[in-house]
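Figure 6 in text form: structure in, sequence out.
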């Protein structure tokens, strides 16, 4: 009896040891594959959330994206953190929107690029080739409107630019990048059609889009909405008495059905416009410079475009 128990114990011990050994081997295998992959991954820095999301979708498992301007902060001015500088020095590619979104050649993005010693070969302008539209400032000067990505048509162009840059940097994965870009483009083309059809379905007299910043120009012009705004681009002067007076005038003349408000602006100037004109602020905010926080509405570029269209259609349709 005793001997039998002893043998049983040995058997159990042997099985346990084999199991442990197997687990150990598997772990080792996992770590080594992981190490192998990191050599095959592009380290990418991107200036703001919309662009970062697009790169992640097109680059998939072969890109590691570090986003600079956090959600909740306008991308026109930014002070890179020590972590950003560290990641940027090791990056294979640095993407920016361009069209002066990041303050142009003297803005924060190019300062970062210079400070980490990166060259032209490492940087990619995502909006390259996009026909710029201009903002008129109070002195009548023309300034490029950076918010081109609000239009799905521009998103299509940006996707093509991102694809080209990734293939150039990692030609051996060209087929993979082409496939994911094709899937992504298909979605954007569908959304482009939805914008055309949706906005055409709004009664003509209601096709007036009024928000705080003139950030929707590329979309309103493309799909046939008349754009109203309080200020042309975010500055310290947002909602000045002059801007308020002119906007009240615009609202009284054009009688928009509702006033839209962006998720990341001071609500007070629009509240003044609303109380002075009797036109209500629409309950759902629109998204302009950024996608939604993870888990919230519009938390990817595709969802951002769909969400904005929904809000516009809900707000302006009868
Ligand atoms: Zn802006």
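Output sequence:
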């Amino acid at each position: 009896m005793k001997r039998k128990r002893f043998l049983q114990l040995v058997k159990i011990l042997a099985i346990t040891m084999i199991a442990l050994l197997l687990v150990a081997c598997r772990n080792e295998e996992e770590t080594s594959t992981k190490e192998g992959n990191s050599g095959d991954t592009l380290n990418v820095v991107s200036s703001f959330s919309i662009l970062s999301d697009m790169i992640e979708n097109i680059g998939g498992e072969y890109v590691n994206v570090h986003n600079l301007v956090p959600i909740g902060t306008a991308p026109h001015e930014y002070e890179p953190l020590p972590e950003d500088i560290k990641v940027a020095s090791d990056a294979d590619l640095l993407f920016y929107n361009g069209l002066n979104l990041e303050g142009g050649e003297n803005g924060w993005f190019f300062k970062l690029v210079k400070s980490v010693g990166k060259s032209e070969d490492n940087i990619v302008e995502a909006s390259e080739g996009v026909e710029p539209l201009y903002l008129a400032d109070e002195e009548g000067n023309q300034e490029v409107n950076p918010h081109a990505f609000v239009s799905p048509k521009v998103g299509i162009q940006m996707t093509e630019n991102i694809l080209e840059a990734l293939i150039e940097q990692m030609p051996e994965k060209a087929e993979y990048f082409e496939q994911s870009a094709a899937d992504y483009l298909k979605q954007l083309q569908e959304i482009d059609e939805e914008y055309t059809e949706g906005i055409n379905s709004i009664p003509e007299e209601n096709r007036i889009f009024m928000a705080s910043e003139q950030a929707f120009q590329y979309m309103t012009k493309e799909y046939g909405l008349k754009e109203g705004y309080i200020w042309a681009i975010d500055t310290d002067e947002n909602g000045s008495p002059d801007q308020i007076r002119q906007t009240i005038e615009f609202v009284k003349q054009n009688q928009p059905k509702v006033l839209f408000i962006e998720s990341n602006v001071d609500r007070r100037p629009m509240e003044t416009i609303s109380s002075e004109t009797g036109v209500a602020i629409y309950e759902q905010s629109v998204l302009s410079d950024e996608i939604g926080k993870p888990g919230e509405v519009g938390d990817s570029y595709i969802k951002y475009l769909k969400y904005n269209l929904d809000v516009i259609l809900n707000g302006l349709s009868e």
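Caption detail: The mean pLDDT is 89.
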